[in-house]
Write a structure and sequence with these properties.
The chain is an alpha+beta fold and 55 residues long. The protein has one domain.
């Protein structure tokens, strides 16, 4: 996930003069520690948001 989000951020920076971006990461209750990774990324990048879905 970290590599993918890094690519998104890089692309968004090249388009920043024309567009504003917000990225939403959705956790669907997976057990692969992706929620922890997403939270760490949010701390590094203010345009990221995390939505937690509970099942």
């Amino acid at each position: 996930m970290r590599e993918f989000v890094g690519r998104l951020i890089a692309v968004s920076r090249t388009l920043a003069d024309r567009y504003t971006f917000e990225f939403i990461l959705v956790d669907d209750g997976s057990t692969d520690k992706s929620l922890e990774t997403a939270r760490a990324l949010v701390a590094e990048e203010p345009r990221l948001r995390v939505i937690e879905l509970r099942r």
